[in-house]
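Onboarding guide, step 5: your first structure request.
Type a short instruction followed by the sequence, for example:

Predict the 3D structure of this protein.
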Amino acid sequence: MKKFSVLLMCLIPGFLFTANAEDNFSVDQTFGGEVPAVGEAITLKDAIAGLSQGEEGFVKIKGQVTEVCQAKGCWMILVDGDTYARVTFEDYGFFVPIETSMQRSVIYGQLSEHVLSGAQAEHFAQDAGAKSTIKLEGEVREYSILARAVQLENRS
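The system replies with structure tokens like these:
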């Protein structure tokens, strides 16, 4: 039993490190302001759940970027499973590279829900180019994040 306990104690730290290795985030680039060091980034789904409970204000949200405006990088889509939010940038003050795609990201901003008009939806679909995976026809209800800062994961 003593050998089992010692073996278990040796394996647990390795397991914990492995389980958390996915949460490690190596920042390659930051756009806009600084993402606060205090507090953990939450998933987009958790942020949306908080929004539906009346929580407001700035939050750190993590997810994967799947699309970026191909005209000039003035918006991007952050995805968490089957949930997405369109990210725009505070005061139109910064953009992200148009080749930013399939990268993990941490966004510091304000989450909201709104309805896009048919014209807005069409404009976003054109900006996304032929590779858009989100269907925007007619009025569309979507979540959006007005970002104050964006961190993109190091791809290496």
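Each response can be followed by summary notes, for example: The domain at 32-153 is CATH 2.40.50.200 (OB fold (Dihydrolipoamide Acetyltransferase, E2P)).
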